[in-house]
Design brief:
About 0% of the residues lie in helices and about 40% in strands. The chain folds into three domains: about 130 residues, no CATH class; about 80 residues, no CATH class; about 80 residues, Immunoglobulin-like (Sandwich). By secondary structure, it is mainly β. The chain has no helices and 23 strands.
Length: about 300
């Protein structure tokens, strides 16, 4: 209290010689004459260091605390209204001694440390943060540093001084069409300043499939002058004439016909698509075609 005097006693004053008391990382605020003495001036009864003394005068007169912090500036966010969280860059930030895990949770549940070093006092400084919201239908957006994986996680808090890089990956059947919001544009990665909350949308476009052009088909019809004189068979068995004497083929298909002559007959010639060829005939299916095999009896 800057208007008077006061004392804080730590430990059991009835037997200060048998058990030490420890005072680390305490913040003493608005004091006129900061000093931590041993009870009854018993040497070593209190082990103390890394305490902060915020005084009216800015002076400090306790010579036996090597890592003490002393100053006169108000370190709190709004002490007049009971908000005792630490301001960025204030004296107690990153000046405390690292203690055991029992003390690693601040008064408001924040885990110590938030920076590289613990903070003095009941609260651990948590840097100001802003929220990044992402919309990503038909694709996934991820962030560096991590936090966004949208898909599933489409908003996250980042430090207000951070820059967050977003990368979009379209789902199958879509292409990435570009960014909107958050100062982003184009189809490359997007880097967003988190000085304030941001809303970013990843836009996608459906891939338009090329129209399917139906494949032309043509028929090949085979006939014989004497039904029982022999059999005409295609190499892929689509024709077996005999019984199957006509088949359809895709344009450009090459069909090979083979003539098997029965006993008592001989193959004579072709007319139509196989004209001029022997017992093996190849037809290129550039149009629907007919061919006839001529047989004669042997005597």
């Amino acid at each position: 209290n800057c208007g008077g005097r006061g004392a804080v006693f730590v430990g059991n004053l009835t037997d200060v010689s048998s058990q030490k008391s420890y005072a680390y990382n305490n913040l003493f605020y608005n004091v006129a004459h900061p000093r931590m003495d041993n009870p009854g001036f018993t040497a070593g009864a209190i082990v103390h260091d890394n305490n902060a003394y915020l005084t009216c005068t800015g002076t400090f007169n306790s010579a036996d605390e090597s890592a003490a912090q002393v100053g006169s500036d108000d370190p709190f966010v709004d002490s007049a209204n009971g908000k005792y969280q630490l301001r960025a860059g204030s004296l107690p930030v990153n000046k405390a001694k690292a203690l055991i895990a029992t003390y690693a949770t601040a008064l408001d549940g924040v885990t110590r440390p938030q920076g590289g070093t613990w903070d003095i006092g009941a609260y651990e400084y948590l840097s100001a943060q802003s929220t990044l919201f992402v919309t990503s239908a038909n694709g996934t957006v991820t962030s560096n540093p991590s936090g966004i994986n949208c898909g599933s996680t489409c908003y996250a808090n980042f430090d207000a001084d951070a820059w967050v890089t977003l990368t979009a990956s379209p789902n199958s059947g879509y292409t990435f069409a570009g960014w909107s919001g958050g100062g982003c544009s184009g189809t490359e990665t997007c880097t967003v300043s988190m000085a304030s909350a941001q809303v970013v949308t990843a836009n996608y476009a459906a891939v338009v499939a090329a129209p399917t052009v139906p494949t032309a088909t043509y028929y090949l019809s085979v006939s014989k002058t004497i039904a029982n004189a022999g059999t005409i068979v295609a190499s892929d068995n689509t024709i077996n004439c005999g019984s199957i004497c006509k088949a359809n083929y895709n344009a450009g298909k090459k069909v090979t016909l083979n003539v098997a002559v029965n006993s008592g007959y001989k193959f004579s010639r072709w007319t139509g698509a196989c004209k001029g060829q022997g017992t093996t005939c190849t037809v290129s299916m550039t149009a629907s075609q007919n061919t006839k095999a001529y047989f004669a009896e042997t005597k």
